[in-house]
TrEMBL record:
The keyword rRNA-binding does not apply. Transmembrane segments: none annotated. The keyword Methyltransferase does not apply. It holds the Pfam family Peripla_BP_4. It comes from the Bacteria. Belongs to the bacterial solute-binding protein 2 family. InterPro entries: Peripla_BP_I, SBP_2_dom. It comes from Pseudodesulfovibrio portus. This is Sugar ABC transporter substrate-binding protein. Its main location: other.
Amino acid sequence: MKRTGQRFLWLVLCALLLAALPTNSLAAVELPSVTFVSPSMASKRPFWNDFIAFMKVAAEDLGINLTVLEADNRFEVNDLVRKTLSGQARPDYLVSIYQADTTIATLTMARDAGVKTLIVNTDVVDAERAAAGSPRGIYPSWIGHIFPDDASAGRMLAKRLFDRAGQMNLRAPDGKIHVIGLGGSHTATSSSHRRTGLLSAVADFPDVVVDQFVLAYWKREVSRQKAVKLLSLYPDATVFWAINDHTAMGVLDAMDKRGAVPGKDILTGGIDWSPECVGKVLNGSMVTTIGGHFMEGAWALLLLLDYHNGHDFAQPDPTLHSEMRIIDSDTAHRFLPVLDRDNWPSIDFRRLSKTYNPGLEKYDFSPDAVARQLSEQ
């Protein structure tokens, strides 16, 4: 009996010693260097501020050496890329978004420099699809692409607005729900895809008619100016579908000028999960804001870390989609903790990585993955 007890104690001691040492799989993790070139100054665009901040938290947790460069416009992006790739300390990977008239040059420079590229946030513009191809095609060093399903987001926003308008019976004398659409720009794929989602939803609602669709160029002031004019031209309009949160805020500004009550006389909603618009959703001024795609920088780092350590994401497709979710009065309690920056350092990004979690079979690039972790704490 004494010998059995000693043997058990020895086994426990050995187990404790082994647990204190890094496993072979973790000890062998190679940590890549990554440069992200942002298309905007974080101080000028709340979305990119959140995108970069979340990406930096993920990089620290994953042990990735991340450098963030901020451009003031899309043409400055290539200047930053050129300087980065011509220097002695080239990164292992370059992350950027797809922008018309500039990204093919970015892909060419990265290929020539022997640096692999991952594109986030935006799809390839139609006019350049033949020249750019797809990841691992014309440009083999372009190893991956991750961007949100913007058509789905535009559709979700429209359906939520139309449903609420129907419930509130915000119909014109002709029995129809009249809608104004405020888009982004001609060149951004996120703008065109979200508009496709809007039109898809309209086709499912026979009592909905779009009076006018105009571009607001993602800007609050432009949206305000156009919404003021459109409210005069189309007095029966009770729904304003907005391409993003900035644009939705411009609609609220226009309503204030007209004396309309937001959330009662006229409904609007946006896309981005900006703190200001989340607040407007909570006080009833806006119907919803849709977002979560600010997390894509972190998802990109997970893909690159895994790729760097032999867990290729090429199958079934090196093009992946992140997921967006609705924040409204019913879902706010679930996603508000995700938006609280004080909670971000407690997120275990390694749980979402195949390098640190070899048993992981499928990536979950959704706000739900983060919300679940935070709910456990």
